[in-house]
Amino acid sequence: MLKVAVIGATGAVGQEFVVALNKHKWFELRQIAASERSAGKKYVDAIRDPNSGILRWHNREEVPEYVRNMIVSKVQDIKPENFDLIFTALESDDAQTIEPKFAKSTPVISTAAAFRYENDVPILIPGINDNHAELLNVQRKNRGWKGFIAPLPNCTTTGMAITLKPIQDKFGIEKVFMTSMQALSGAGRSPGVIALDIMDNVIPYIPKEEEKVQVETKKILGTMNAGTIKSTSFKVSCTCTRVPVLDGHTETVFVETKSATEAEDVKKEMLKFSKNVTIKGLPTAPKDYIIVHDDPTRPQPRIDREINDGMTTVVGRLRKDTAFDNGVKYVLLSHNEKMGSAKGAVLLAELLKDRNIL
Amino acid sequence: MLKVAVIGATGAVGQEFVVALNKHKWFELRQIAASERSAGKKYVDAIRDPNSGILRWHNREEVPEYVRNMIVSKVQDIKPENFDLIFTALESDDAQTIEPKFAKSTPVISTAAAFRYENDVPILIPGINDNHAELLNVQRKNRGWKGFIAPLPNCTTTGMAITLKPIQDKFGIEKVFMTSMQALSGAGRSPGVIALDIMDNVIPYIPKEEEKVQVETKKILGTMNAGTIKSTSFKVSCTCTRVPVLDGHTETVFVETKSATEAEDVKKEMLKFSKNVTIKGLPTAPKDYIIVHDDPTRPQPRIDREINDGMTTVVGRLRKDTAFDNGVKYVLLSHNEKMGSAKGAVLLAELLKDRNIL
Amino acid sequence: MLKVAVIGATGAVGQEFVVALNKHKWFELRQIAASERSAGKKYVDAIRDPNSGILRWHNREEVPEYVRNMIVSKVQDIKPENFDLIFTALESDDAQTIEPKFAKSTPVISTAAAFRYENDVPILIPGINDNHAELLNVQRKNRGWKGFIAPLPNCTTTGMAITLKPIQDKFGIEKVFMTSMQALSGAGRSPGVIALDIMDNVIPYIPKEEEKVQVETKKILGTMNAGTIKSTSFKVSCTCTRVPVLDGHTETVFVETKSATEAEDVKKEMLKFSKNVTIKGLPTAPKDYIIVHDDPTRPQPRIDREINDGMTTVVGRLRKDTAFDNGVKYVLLSHNEKMGSAKGAVLLAELLKDRNIL
Amino acid sequence: MLKVAVIGATGAVGQEFVVALNKHKWFELRQIAASERSAGKKYVDAIRDPNSGILRWHNREEVPEYVRNMIVSKVQDIKPENFDLIFTALESDDAQTIEPKFAKSTPVISTAAAFRYENDVPILIPGINDNHAELLNVQRKNRGWKGFIAPLPNCTTTGMAITLKPIQDKFGIEKVFMTSMQALSGAGRSPGVIALDIMDNVIPYIPKEEEKVQVETKKILGTMNAGTIKSTSFKVSCTCTRVPVLDGHTETVFVETKSATEAEDVKKEMLKFSKNVTIKGLPTAPKDYIIVHDDPTRPQPRIDREINDGMTTVVGRLRKDTAFDNGVKYVLLSHNEKMGSAKGAVLLAELLKDRNIL
Predict the structure, then answer these.
(1) D53 — contact with chain B (CB < 8 Å)?
(2) What are the pLDDT digits (tens) for D93-102?
(3) What does the longest C-alpha to C-alpha distance in chain D come to?
């Protein structure tokens, strides 16, 4: 059993970590840390809003027994050398200063954006760009660390990169236009989206989101060569919006391919990719990596987000595009807090351990 | 005063007609008709749901006094020759058979799709393609009618066509990708979207909607020449979704232009177009035809839909596109039941009267 | 295995029946029936809305494999003598004529109101008034039927009657005031609550609901004596409202007791009752019959409705009342489609079989 | 023109003050103050959320022109002697220390709870207990202040007290049971209700709310005598909940009266009271003080909250109670931020000026 800590354990993403690590076969959660406000409290008290008295717990499962009475530590009281692995769910500013301290001694798997865009840092999606993981060794050497920082992509990038990968491999990609309709639970910063802002409404803007998705997608689908990642040359353009949905990011995608393609062929490639994906057999891996619906009314976030416990990317409305000479369009759904965040991070940890990088 | 009738007066669009015609300067609503179920009842009773007892009235204003006790007629009891103009808010199947009967004697302005795609039928948006109105005379001649059928576009087409027009005129257009997040009140067929289907959800499909928007946009922005409309040659690709918003269709638009352009230039063109739009001074014309927000969090449907009583197309997030060499992207909001439907139809009637076509 | 049929299998309640009977230990679902519109179709096609194309399926679980391709029969094609038991989920008008035909040969467990108020018909809640079941024999004799009609209460009655029972037994009851905040899925009649009616809203009225709850509660908690049920003498007053919640009826209850009582004592009685409830061990019986929360922010419908798969009545905010000399007030949550409807009906069937009444 | 200041001008209630004072006939808003975070900013910048970039403005009207660029002061920079009247919209803790400082020189009308329960402080609802205003003179003398503190009741108290008053006057009251379904905008503390907490949910608890409503109602409807208020002797019991509604508190009320009464009589008394209410003619007074609907589906918050610009208490479902020997039950709706808060405070100021108490 590897000894792990979760930093930022009280927020929405941190809560998913706590659930994902419950009775985990390989990882034992030994310590949790969060902000000053929470430190010293029992976990179950730290996640209760002091004004309304409401337990800020957003999982379908109850707070797991094993963590209810665990005392929340201050971040600065974490001794990284005590752990084999540290998961972080921090705001980017905090991650910027805290993660390198941990990485000196210990591998860090992070959901924050702070290091994603550095040259010796891969952005890993298990099953999509596993070979980029070798950059972690470059990073170790570069920085003189025993550990490393391995960030996940933004939760809005994940589903898109996963569905583009089989298209890129078979048909090549020229351009991608994506519009996201993002769920409330994806709004990182505490306290989250205010009900008065979003009920009966759409917010057409999420600060910095589009730039992240555009850059990350190209890096993830780029090529690893001689110790560097070269981003793909295709173009990506996004508009990211927030909608009144609890969980699950819905995205409409328009893809121009290099070679001619029919929707049916793309479906086949997606399913083939899903069937042969590298992560099969890892503890957190889903039965289906990608599902493609023929029912045009799917995916729907409320209906489809919990399929395979939120680890499957669900595709629907796959059809020939009407504006590109070669291209398809489709709608995808990805659970922003499961595959797109904490559970995806745990899956990454499993992959790295399986490959002896951890 | 022109004598007018409204057919389909009890539905969501019909209700907007009844409000738009309240105390109208030029039009007097003399008769209302609806389905068998409603016929013979007072208007205010006909719009009450028999099961729940709820008044199905979706306007911020109360049911106007003048129409509360008006008796709803059967459609077949309407004598078209008694009217100078008939507004119809019918399902497409019904429109197919009913509208031609009326048009023999009387001009019909329709919100239905039934005749939009016929060669001698223009799809008119006041201020955008007024010159297409001359096709109505061709239609009269062709069909031997004293009246005509003048359909509005689908409510999802309206805002997009309005915002594309100044871009087309100045920069030329190559391709358009659009994703809509459509409001509940836009679902035409009675009884509308079921709460259990849409709460905490997005429905990624609206039957036939995308095809309509794609074809209509090109026809509206096409050229009138020698008695026919030639659709524009640019390509349009849409994905239409339903979101839990009461009123107001939000659309994200990515436009490839023929010539290089900056967002700032497009903004200028939109505002110039708005300022000089042909419909200024008509009773139902808004103060602003297009508003362009610099605030990146706008437009929001709940906040912006009622601006200028729902007759303004609100644009925001106008910025250079990152995937097209030449192009911009933006978000727009259009009130699907006001400018996009009944009030847009009344505005069209005003235009046609002003040009002596009515 | 008893052979069972479900009548009204396509509606919200019918869907819960289909789920509750999936792999049931004692009951085998052999035939399903629904309205003309659905008859002859596969189940999975019959529950799809023809206009929007949306699958009208409101369960967290997928449509069970065993029923997906089962052909929906017409109600009149059901031969009751082929079944050991028939579950019905019908509108009251239909139940009025259909259920007696079935009951001639076969026991009927019904979610409809049609027969609830007749003298020889008990309204049964398993665990609350099991002894009323003997009235079914009276009914058989009276009516010359081999079967019987055993209706469940209205879904709003269930949670209230369950929580009042231990209070009544120990402290006696004088008066009850209840306000319900009912979920969307409880609106029986197709197609259910329209999104435009309920979003950002409360509907303060549900036709006939309050009368049902008032009468049923008194009958359920009445005494069985010499072949008749005498309703309790305490007074009940309700106001029933609809709120924008998918599932789970929340109710605020104010109870005047005969003897002095503290909230702590009522809690003890509820928990003792829950522990000793008669239905323990039946296949569909929950681990907890009643849960009492000390956390004042519970119960919440979204958080608590699925506890023990929707079969537990969840109580919170139990405190001394401030207007009655003797009394308490509390909030309860009951899953309107599980314990309050189809799954409660299956539990009742299990009880009746266990007692050899089936 | 009286010179006024608004303290706490950036919050939801403060925003209503700013709207209510726009172009006011008698009051000129000269200065606005808010927390440190906002001080020094233009009003329109101070109300923008720094994380999401969203303008936190919750009024149907745009931010009034006159206040957009007004600079927000620190509270401690307010010189009370410069004003004829100060409106405060503060958290109770802050009100406790700030309001007495202001009151030394200047009348304060407050929406905070801090002083409501003190002996020499009336809780005033214009039109209901105007005579309690004389206690303000007692207060002045007691405390040696030139000004005074005149708090409004909690927004949940207002509608109930208004509707109970005509019942109390004519029939006498023994007991009241009330359940509230409160809107999101009524949650005072910044930042308000989190969308993840309330979507598809009901929160059955609002800290301290019930105690406030119970005590305040009895004080407001109490008798003024020899310089003190004696609370009424009737009993009040409440359960207060939060529902996913933007604005407008819905309350179900069960009233036991001293004398026998029919619903029809209560309706008459309410309408008579409304017609003769003392506040007629004041600038902010509504056309109707109370409206009583016969339509059982009313009041609905989304439909009825803006009637008479949110200053009318809307009653429906008025009927004989079924548990009390003498009594009625009904549903009421009161706009929590208009009559129940800022606009009610402005109406109170108008009344006090009209009576020469200001």
Answers:
(1) yes
(2) 999 999 999 9
(3) 61
